[in-house]
Amino acid sequence: MNASLVVVGAGPRGTGFLERLAASLPLLYGDEPLDIHLVDPHPAGAGRIWRAEQSSLLWMNSMAEDVTMFTDDTVQQEGPVRPGPTLAEWSGLDARSFPSRRAQGAYLRWVYEGAVAALPPNVTVHEHRTRATRVGGPRAGRQRVWLEGRPEPLVADLVVLALGHLDAELDPEQQELAHFAERHGLLHLPPAFTADSDLSAVRPGEPVIVRGFGLAFVDLMALLTEGRGGRYDADGTYHPSGREPVLYVGSRRGVPYHSKIGYTWTGERPPLPRFFGPAEVDALLSRPDRPDFRRDIWPLIDKELGFAHYHRLFHAHPERTAVPWADFEEKYAAADPAGPGLRALIDASVPDPADRLDLEALDHPLDGVRFPSYASLQSGLRTYIQADLTRRHNDGHSVDLAVFLGLLSVYGQLQRIGDVGGWWHGFFSFLASGPPGPRLRQLLALSDAGVVRFLGAGVTVEADEAAGVFRAGSASVPGQWIEAAALIEARLPEPSAERPGSPLLQALYEEGAAAAETGLLQVDPADGRVVGRDGQPHPRRFALGPFTVARASGAFTRPRTGGAAFRQNDATARVALSFLRDLACRPVSA
């Protein structure tokens, strides 16, 4: 029987793993026969999120020039570099445009087909357009992967789970809201992927409470406005079709994610990592106790991002600083990350407070801000969004791009530590993974047209049994409430070990796989092996992607930024190939 590898999930993460497998296979595995089974109900390459069967109104969150599926010499990997084109280079799209997700899906399909074509003749790829429901088998023997609609399982020497973003069953709060909506004939849409949500029940003109102001909201906004026949004219004014609802949107922060940066880098880049690199991570991992994120890790991250910020400020805008860079750098390096001396140094060296980096203030832009009415809140939020757009498209504030580069560097280092809690990932997305500038300009136009209205920060939602409506309030406008017969949770499902939306993941947990406190699957950050509740990594099961504690910032990335997911894919592919090669030298267990 041929050696066999099952990859569950053939979207961008599964495709990236396959590309790395093809790159190292001739050197590590040789010419023995190998069967690779790819299991995914969605098209290989594009997968669920990037499939062609979705609205053309849904955009990528990155410019075409900032998207690649190929490694370069900045990726810290043992496998060979296989360069390839960015989405812009492959498609001929405007490099600075934000393509549709359909366009990205076509690129991913091409990458997938190229990875398959790069495999040598001794490797056979089998596609299974269905779902995997369970993985079983002994640690020392072949694994069995059961597929939906098929009585006999696939038999595999190794299994790699590249499941992508997962659904989740409703948590207690969402269950209560769903039951309340059912009792009163209301509409409740729980956390989900917006492209998969049925929005047909959202009635024209009705008020809708929307909880969530990130990228899921941006998709919702597009589908319920342009998707219902509204249009923007040449000067950006929105002309309603009359079929739109009125979206009352709020969240914990009360503001949308920061706009994508609209200029390119020039000049010297900050030398990263500097204060949160391999040596610092080694020290954290060598501790006898597990490092605490806020106490042990965050001060190092804060100092690292500050270094990126001030390196750019001193080099690009020395007139806005009070001391020479060499003096500042020496004292900055020596300062305790968590001590008062670092703040005193910054205050003395950077005269204008607007030029200083305050990550806590960035994370809570509306803290302590109160508005006398919802009408005044609308004006205040429009001013905030316009200021963000202006700053993010003005290279006089290129310190923001330096911090973005710092965030990417930090994300790569954190993968070695594993699960650091959900706050960091939300913070990263808020600063570094926001919507394209044109989307925020559309948001402003929709606000002007009265189609979108802001709720503010610290939003709470109540189910009013007596009135039979949902009520939403916020800390930004105390004591005032919005009532609606519809509630949409515009956010992705939270990972949960108790309520995973994947039967396969549920079965893994029941069999003994470990979950972190955040509900993510425990894996060995070094090679992606699934870790059991006994603390031991499974020798034949691997997992890659956002459902694991070693989640990266994306399955694809900007060129020449290290590609943390690429590094993971490479490491897992090489461990898998070495295992399969060694297995060929000894008898196979049934």
UniProtKB/TrEMBL annotation:
- Where is the chain membrane-spanning? none
Name the domain of life: Bacteria
- The FAD-dependent urate hydroxylase HpyO/Asp monooxygenase CreE-like FAD/NAD(P)-binding domain covers 6-165
Among Pfam families, the record links this protein to: NAD_binding_9
Question: What is the protein name for this chain?
Answer: Adenylate cyclase
Q: What's the source species for this entry? A: Streptomyces xanthochromogenes
